[in-house]
Amino acid sequence: MTDNNTFSNNRLINWFKLSSPSTFYPVAGKLIPFFWGLTALFGVIGLWISFFVAPVDAVQGQGYRIIFIHVPASWMSMFIYIVMAVWAGIGLIFNTRLSAMMAQALAPIGAWMAFLSLWTGAFWGKPMWGAWWVWDARLTSELILLFLSLGFIAGETAPAGRTMGHAGAIVGGSDDTAQAKKRIMRSCGIHVVDSPAEIGKKVKEVLG
User: Fold this and answer.
1) What would the mean pLDDT of 188-198 be, rounded to a whole number?
2) pTM of the model
């Protein structure tokens, strides 16, 4: 029983070691060719089925095939944004550098997926709806998602001395200290607590 507990603790410790960039990067570098291979394989299979195996739609004709790119791109843009928000939240709460790096790496991919969704949606909408763009709830929300991703990227890439640089650092991390980030947020009128235990007290103070 003791051996099993020791083995489980060792595995847990090994997983926690990957939270450090110095240990995560070598592992991720070794996995990159594997994931590139899977991406190419499933991409070719998906495109082959979409354009050559799937039957022609009785109403929309061949033009409907663009949804095989449009819909997955839309899903991925939303999914990546959720994952990016989770990583950014973890980095903000626990001040882990790798979490901020993950959010920063996901932002350009999410922005590209949102742009691809809007671009393919326009090509599909013109013959089907008769317009390149309509203020539909789905299209508008996807456009907002693109702006959010671009805003995050702008905040991350702005010079550290600029306001946008600090705004991106609040979510994505930077070379500044946690106390410096808190001072920036307080100067912007944002209520900040030093620990989760103070959240209730701060809420009462704001609402009272």
Assistant:
1) 66
2) 0.66
